[in-house]
Amino acid sequence: MENKINSRLITKMEQIQVLKELDIYGFSKVDNFLTTVSIENFLDLINSKYDEINKTQKVSYPGVPTRNTNDKIIYNLQNIDISFIDVLTSPTIVSIASNKLNDPFYRFLPPDKPNYVLQYYNARSSGQKLDLHIDSHIPFSGSFTNMMQFVILLEDSTIDNGCTTVVPGSHQSAKFTDRELKNLKPLEGKAGDLILWDSRLWHGTNENITGDSRWALIATLSMWWIKPSMDIVRGMSEDIYDKCSDHQKQFLGFCSIPPINPMDRNNTKTGYDFLKKKFKDYNF
Q: Is domain 12-281 annotated with CATH 2.60.120.620?
């Protein structure tokens, strides 16, 4: 992609408001996060990649639940183009995620540097209804969270085309979801908006009854010590790795690779100095 991805830097007051809403409601939204040109560039990448992987026949990923059979999904966006990593390491997302997900006792990096990591990253255009669920796996209450979803809308998201629905404040329930619950709150938004929520929040989607696409970039970010849903480090391409900054390599998990033996290292955590090696020199 030749055009650099441009995202909006939120003000300090906006950031304070977003963090308050995350604490109280479990979700928030940043309007007009992406420029129109950036949206178009991402849609071009997504549509061309989706056409490529479905050129001969519809791809059937092993283990995908039947509820997702009508969804369009592209996995592992971090392996497709550096721009997908750039947008997740933009100042606005870093400022919010660092506040919520940084480990203050990491020690191997300066305290003002991000140390959270990428868990999971895909592009999705929903089809069928998705029941209420949580992504944190363990329900618990309190101001502390260890995982969040960041969703960047590339097309308008409405009730009719399958927008996300949530139960405000449910991240503090310390319970698994009640899928019989009615009167859910729809999280509608315009193309370019950033919607984010605490992974403990009860959330799902409406059915897309329009037949039109509703593409969005969906990323799960977590504290560094949580096992990712995909093996991002071993799945990384050397070409993308070479384009990443030290922060981006750390974000992808290269500073928290478990050591194979104590003669190599005796701590999972490392700093930027660990990133001086070439991609081929990592002992996976």
A: yes
